[in-house]
Amino acid sequence: xxxxxxxxxxxxxxxxRALGRLPSRSLMNLGELVSALNDFASLSLAESWDNVGxxxxxxxxxxxxxxxxxxxxxxxxxxxxxxxxxxxxxxxxPPIFTPLKRVTWKTWKERLVVQALEHRIGxxxxxxxxxxxxxxxxxxxxxxxxxxxxxxxxxxTVPSYPAGGTHRVExxxxxxxxxxxxxxxxxxxxxxxxxxxxxxxxxxxxxxxxSLNCSQKALLGVVALLSQNSLLYHKTEILLLQKPLLPHTGxxxxxxxxxxxxxxxxxxxxxxxxxxxxxxxxxxxxxxLDSPVKKAALCAGSGSSVLKGMEADxxxxxxxxxxxxxxxxxxxxxxxxxxxxxxxxxxxxxxRDMLAVHLQNxxxxxVSEKDRDPLQVA
Length: 378
Prior knowledge:
- By secondary structure, this protein is an alpha/beta fold.
- It is 30% helix and 28% strand.
- It contains 13 helices and 19 strands.
- It has helices at 13-20, 30-40, 75-83, 108-118, 128-132, 137-142, 176-187, 216-226, 230-234, 263-274, 304-307, 322-330, 347-358; strands at 28-29, 53-56, 63-64, 66-70, 88-91, 122-125, 148-151, 154-157, 167-173, 192-202, 205-214, 237-240, 245-251, 253-262, 280-282, 292-302, 314-319, 334-337, 364-367.
- The radius of gyration is 29 Å and the shape is globular.
- Mean pLDDT is 91; it is low at 1-23.
C-alpha cells in the first residue's frame, strides 16, 4: 500500500539493470596484454627473418577493451576494425615487414599505420611464433588429415640456455707461465664465456685443464691462438654445443595417420576442414587418386623451404614454387596447395577461444569478417 501523496514511477528494466551495475569485461593495459600474448607464444620461437611483436603502439596510457583478430591486415579489414572500435589488432601476418622510410598517405601499408595511430589502435603480429607452438597454426592444420600423430619437421631449441656460445674448447698444459700468457690473450677475444681452469692429472703429470665456451666467430680466434703452440694445439678438444629441443615445438609437421587413407579421401577431408570448394592437386609419379596416404608433411602458408627433402606420401601447404612441385612429384610425392592464407585463417576461431581462456575473459575478442584470401577461382 502506498502512502498518501506518493506516486508509482515505472522505470524501464534496462535502467534498473544499469543502476544495478551488472559486471562487465574489465580493461587491460596494453603493456599487460602484450606481456600476456608473449606468454601465450614466446616471440623467441619466431624465425630470425620475421618481424613479430608490437608493431604499432599508440601513445600511453593505452587500454584495451576489444582485441581484433585477422590473418591479413588490409585497408578493408582496418576499416572494419575501426567500426568495431578495436583497441588492438592481432594480425597473424605482420603488415610492416620491410622497413618504412616514411609514413604518408601514399601507399596502403603507410596508410594502415596512419589510421591505426589516428584511431589509437595498436598492431601486434605473432606470425611464425604461432607456426612453431604446439597449440598453433600447424597443429590446427593437422586436424584436416583426420586421426594422426605429428612431430615438428624442424624442431625448435630452447631459446636461452646456461651454456653460452656455440662451441666448447678444452685443453691441458703443464707450463703455467705460458698458460698465463695464453689466457690473457684469450680473454681479449670477444665472444668468450664460461672460462674456467682446474687442476688435472694427465698421464701421471700435474697439469691445468682449461675449458671455455665461445661463439662461432670467436672459435676462429681461439684456434688461431692455440695453433701457435703445436703441443698445446694437439691437446685441444672442440665440442659443438647444442641447445635442448623443445618438445612438440617447431616449423612444419610430419603426420602419421592412424589408418592409411586414399589420396582422394584425404583431399576431401582437407577441403572440408578448410571450408574450400576447390584445392590444387599434383599427383606424385606412379601414384593415383586411389593410392594410400600414410605420412603427410605439412606447413601452413608457404611451405617450400620447410617441406623440401622430407620423405612423405603427401605435401600439404598453401603455396609452393612450380619447380618445387615438379621435384616432389618426380619423387612420388603428391602435393596439395590451398593458397597461402587459406591454410592459416581458419585457426583464428580456435585462437579466439584459447586467448579468451588465457586472458581470463578480461577483454572482448572478435574475429574479422572482412579478412579473406585475395585469390579466388573464377
